[in-house]
Amino acid sequence: MTDQNTYRWGHSRRFNSYAEHFRQMFGTRVQKISVDAGFTCPNRDGTIGTGGCTFCSNDAFNPSYCLPQKPIRQQVIEGIEFHRKRYRRAKQYLVYFQAYSNTYKPLAELKTLYREALECEGVIGLVIGTRPDLVDAELIAYLQTLREYTYVILEFGVESVYDSSLKLVNRGHDFAASKNAINLAAAAGIPCGAHLIFGLPGETRKQMLDSASIISALPLTTIKFHQLQLFKNTVMGTEYLKNPGEFSLFSLDEYIRFVVSYTEQLNPDIVIERFAGEVPPRFLVSPSWGPLRYDNLVRMIEQEMELQDTWQGKYHHC
Ligand code: SF4
Questions:
Q1: Which domain, by its residues, includes 294?
Q2: pTM greater than 0.70 (yes/no)
Q3: CATH of the domain at 113
Q4: What is the spatial distance between Cα 276 and Cα 278, in angstroms, rounded to a whole number?
């Protein structure tokens, strides 16, 4: 803490919060609007693999207004309307290219899609979710030109720092691919986010915690954590139903304590966008944490931090 009420990220919450980060950067609340631009994924179409990552269910995350048949502009307008009911204060939006791998088309097509999103009223930037093996120098150079007048962040599915886990879930790339992509983009001035899953089969809790120092050393702007959730109609969901003993899923209490320990080892400069995943129960096989809203979960995590008098980066060593 720099004084009694403020941590080094400039506010009093015990972690470097995404909402506060954007409030500081743009002076107002910024809302992400998901779109499905009809991308697929090289780990599904046979280019790298078929069947995809064994945990993957894009249906579980895609909001109902996101349909690839609809033009981007229409999805953005409907998305703004959808969120307006919940977050009336938001007047500025980031379009989130979320479903599948959103850099997996020729650059000319990507430019058309990204431009269509940026031309929508109230849109101040893009969040582009993709695999780390789907960025190259040409794409980065284009994103650099966009960065001259708008906000752009690349969000990479890193999932784990351990190659054995990545192999086990049929990810189709290793951790070096994530490191290279993040370094390439960050060196060009493109902010990078990472998505991590806690609880993958074969990883001990200690290995997961140890990964905090590896993640902390990457030039990341934001991070999202997800507890391993097993979805219906996925390879992993089916494996779980056959052999539940092979999995060590987090209970809610254990996860809260785990994620607090992880956060206190995490580089305090990395903005935490998400502590856990939240999907409609109808998609879920396990674990069930009951009717818990994400906002309440964050409150519980912050209460645990207070109880332990800890904060993000307390045990981070540069
Ligand atoms: S998680 Fe991402 S990379 Fe893996 S199959 Fe799904 S869309 Fe493809």
A1: 18-307
A2: yes
A3: 3.20.20.70
A4: 7
